[in-house]
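Many introductory courses stop at the sequence. We go one step further.
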Amino acid sequence: MVLDTGSELSWLNCKQSSTPTPIFDHAKSSSYIALPCSSPVCATQTQDLPAPATCDKQANLCHVAVSYVDGSSLDGNLAQETFGIGSLTRPAMVFGCMDSSSSATPEEDTETTTGLMGMNRGRLSFINQMGLSKFSYCISDSDSTGVLVLGDASLPPLKYSPLVTKTDRLPYWDRFAYTVQFEGIQVGSKLLPIPNSAFVLDHTGAGQTILDSGTQFTFLLDQVYNVLKTEFTEQTKSVLTVDPSYVFQTAMDLCFQAGRTKPDFSKLPTVSLMFTGAELTVSGEKLLYLVPGSGSDQKYCFTFGNSDLAGFEMFIIGNVHQQNVWVEYDIANTQVGFANDARCDQASQLLGLRL
């Protein structure tokens, strides 16, 4: 199950297939209701989705389609079902029952995903439908995957950054995202010479900084990305060998040749992303991604990409850089908290909860 703070609609995989992925068999549920085209939810409550629901006239079902920045997409119909977590039970929760999917890359195949919890601030998000105003998670960098806590929790000391909210409908502004104010970047002990204007929204809403657990890597707008790329290259030139001809997934153009030798991650400088009131530190293996299938000629790419090359008009803080960090979304108090250097594998074992 994917936890996605960057999207609204939750969905379950309803497609019968030969893969061992668990699916939701709605035929076995007495409380499942497929929503028809005439449903008020279909007609009025999906307008804030990136692609509002449409009517499948042949089946008379409320058809919904979703797509993500990794190139994957899914189709299905809107439905209602009773969901329960612990002592919390909510009848008639709206979700997508998906029976068709496609993916740009095999490793991101949505058919192998049980489902997704849409956790942004939209009205159909899981957190809103459950009536909760706080949640937190700790994503592990190991196979234990991490911990999700709904409601209050006893967490390590957190530093909070206020959530930026705007009600305006601007072309490039996501009103339902968890947005913080980006203030700067430090590499090792050096604060990068990035002007404040690089982090200021323009009149279209471009320049927003969102926390998105559903996106793998972090993406920075061109001006900021290029300063970071230059400084990281300079500080690692004695440790890493740049491969100037290799680009990974269009937007990640700082890659390194490693051959058969694994880089010495301990010699890489820490990159600190500085927000109002808090910061997120990225170090060690979280800085480099081993390109799958590169064989004996191993290639590693910097885990920051160029938003402009990816077609984004925003800064996106992805899940790799949220690993081993407690992140708390305090919606009631419009703030998000961070506790760096957590041991999320141990938190998973302690609480017995998994993302």
